[in-house]
Recover the amino acids of this structure.
């Protein structure tokens, strides 16, 4: 007997219950804070490249990629390249789609390792500020030339409120109904002590989550997918999975 529907229904009920479990949510928050002193997110690789993300978030994005089957994933912030290689490999399994990776400074040793990787065939690198006219024009040109319709966006570059808010404003028009913008490091607002970010231009009150909250006030095409946060519990992107509810210019 096929019990798939019953199984999925049970999973949804479990997710809803654990999302409402105050003790579990607090324990998850404490675990995240404690693990950060060991730079937990730095300790994982994907196909040989450091990924610098929480494994649960990568698993969640895999689910979204399978569901959406995007023609293009745009990520701002490349670092050592593990995440764009991850997205490229997921798209390779689907047999469709490309990845654009944008970074203001693609360091030579990172570029060399990314370009020699077998999944580089599914990636396109752009060096420059993600909010500059030149970069936006390059992204637009790529989308037009390649006929990209289904687009996901992942924001993980400069974590200041101003920068992330501008990224959200500039890249949200690419995303259509049913797809997502994923904003990483919103947890800066929720989880970490101020001393974690000494010397950084971001911190509590000035970070991706504060940008998300302001963006949602001015753009009602998107909403926080709270089911994902309830599902993951230890996400590095709390309040950062933004689902597009309607297409740009849709009649209401």
């Amino acid at each position: 007997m096929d019990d798939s529907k019953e199984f999925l229904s049970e999973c949804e009920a479990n997710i809803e219950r654990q999302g409402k479990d105050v003790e579990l949510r607090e324990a998850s928050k404490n675990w995240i804070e404690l693990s950060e002193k060991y730079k937990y997110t730095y300790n994982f690789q994907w196909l040989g490249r450091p990924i610098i993300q929480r494994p649960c978030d990568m698993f969640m994005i895999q689910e979204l990629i399978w569901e959406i089957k995007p023609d293009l994933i745009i990520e701002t912030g490349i670092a050592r390249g593990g995440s764009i290689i991850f997205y490229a490999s997921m798209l390779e399994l689907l047999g469709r789609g490309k990845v654009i990776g944008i970074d203001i400074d693609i360091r030579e040793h990172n570029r060399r390792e990314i370009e020699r990787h077998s999944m580089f065939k599914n990636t396109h690198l752009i060096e420059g500020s993600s909010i500059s006219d030149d970069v936006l024009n390059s992204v637009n040109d790529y989308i037009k030339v390649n006929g990209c319709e289904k687009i996901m966006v992942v924001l993980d570059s400069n974590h200041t409120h101003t920068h992330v808010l501008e990224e959200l404003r500039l890249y949200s028009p690419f995303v259509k109904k049913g797809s997502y913008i994923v904003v990483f490091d919103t947890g800066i607002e929720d989880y970490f002590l101020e001393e974690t970010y000494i010397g950084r231009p971001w911190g509590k009150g000035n970070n991706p989550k504060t940008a998300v909250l302001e963006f949602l006030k001015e753009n009602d095409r998107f909403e926080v997918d709270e089911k994902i946060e309830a599902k993951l519990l230890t996400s590095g992107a709390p309040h950062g999975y933004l689902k597009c509810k309607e297409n740009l210019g849709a009649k209401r």
About this structure: The chain has a mean pLDDT of 94.
